[in-house]
Amino acid sequence: MILNILTLIFDLGGGTFDVSLLSVLHGKFVVQATTGDTHLGGEDFDDLLVDHCVKEFKKKYNKDITRNVKSLRRLRTACERAKRMLSPSVMTSIDVDYLYEGVDFSTRISRARFEELNKELFTRCTHLIEKCLGDAKMDKTGVDVVVLVGGSTRIPKIQQLVQDFFDGKKLCKEIHPDEAVAHGAAIQAANLIGERDKEVQKLVLVDVTPLSLGVDTVDEGMSVVVPRNTPIPTKLKRGFETSYDNQTSVRIAVYEGESAETKYNNLLGEFEIDGIDPAPKGVTKLDVWFDIDADGILTVSAKVKSSGQKKEIVISKQNGELTAAEIQKMIVDAAHYKAEDEKHKARISLEYLAEKLKSMALDSARSASEMKSMEDKAENAIAWLETNHHAEIGEINKQLKELKTSFPALCEEN
C-alpha cells in the first residue's frame, strides 16, 4: 500500500521561524501551506536573556550598561553560550570578567527561569503551527511526521511544546538541525541544473505561491486569480468585461498581496490592450490567464474573446519578489485590516448590482413601470453610496439585501 505522508517542517533558526506543511509521495514533495515569522529566532531568546542580566547587574551594582556597546556585546556572547548549555543542563552560569567599569558579573540561570523569560516567544511558535494547519485546512491529527530543523529546535521547551501540540507524537530529529537547509538547497540546485544522479532525480519539490496574485479592478479592488498557497506550476484563468461604454483599451495591472484593495498590495507589472472595438459596457469580454512555471516565473496574458487580440507580460522573481519580511508583513497587515476589506467588498457588490440593474432597465422587453422601478432603485443605491462613505458593513449589506429583495429573479440572473 502506497501512502501519501503529510509532513510538517518546524524550522526555527537564529533569526527567522518558518512552518511548512508538505505531502510526500514517491519522492515528490508538494507544499500544502507555509507561514512564518521573520522576527522570531534564536537571537530573540538571546535578547531576553541579555535584558534579564542587564536588569540584574543594575540591581546589584546600580550601574546601567545599556549604552555601552562593548559591554553588551560581551554579555550577549556569554548569554548565547548559557542558552546553549541549558539544552543539555538544567542549570548554568553566566560569567563576564570586568563587564563594566571594572566590575565582574556572575549569575546563575536555570532552565526553568530561561523558559519563563521566553514564554511569550514559545507561545508564538505554537500559534504559527496552528496558522499553517489552518491555511492548509488540515487538522493536526492528519499530520504523519513532524520534522525539527534549525539550531533553536535543540531547546528542550521547543521540543516539548511541539510534541504536546501533536498529542505526544514522536518528533523526527534524525536530520542534523544545522545542516538540513543546506542539504535541501543542494538537492534543489542539482535538480535545477539537470543533475543526472538517479537518487536526486527521484526527489521533486512542488512549491506554493506565498501571496495571492490578481489584477486591479476599476474601483482599485483586488480581483484574485491565483490564491495564496496555490501549488506551482499552475495556470489559472479569470474572465473580465469592459467597465464603461465604448471602451477601446483595457489596462491590466498585476498585483500580489492579501488586501482587498490594491493600494495595500505590491504592483508586479502592467500592460494595456488597445484597439478594442467600441461597444456598450460589459459586452466585450476578456480572459486573463496567470501561468506560473516551476521556477516561479509568472506570465500574465489577456485575450479579447471577440477579436482574438492578445497581449502578455512576463514577471520573473527578480522583477517582483518581495523579501520574506515583506511577505509576512503583508499577510499580517491583511489580517489587521480584514474588517475594512470586507466593507470595501460589500460596497463594490452594491455598486456593481446597482449598475447592472441600470443597464438591464434599458431592455425594451420590460414594461415601462418595471424599467422605471429598476432605474429608480439603482439610482437610489448609488446615491446612498455617494453620501455614506463611512457606512458600516451592516448598513451596506442591508442596502444590498433590499436591492436583491426588490428584484430577486434579476439578481439570480446576475
From TrEMBL:
The keyword Nucleotide-binding applies. Gene3D superfamilies: 1.20.1270.10, 3.30.420.40, Actin, Chain A, domain 4, Substrate Binding Domain Of DNAk, Chain A, domain 1. GO terms for molecular function: ATP binding; ATP-dependent protein folding chaperone. Residues 1-15 form the signal peptide. Keywords: ATP-binding, Nucleotide-binding, Signal, Stress response. InterPro entries: ATPase_NBD, Heat_shock_70_CS, HSP70_C_sf, HSP70_peptide-bd_sf, Hsp_70_fam. It holds the Pfam family HSP70. Belongs to the heat shock protein 70 family. This is Heat shock 70 kDa protein. It comes from Rhynchospora pubera.
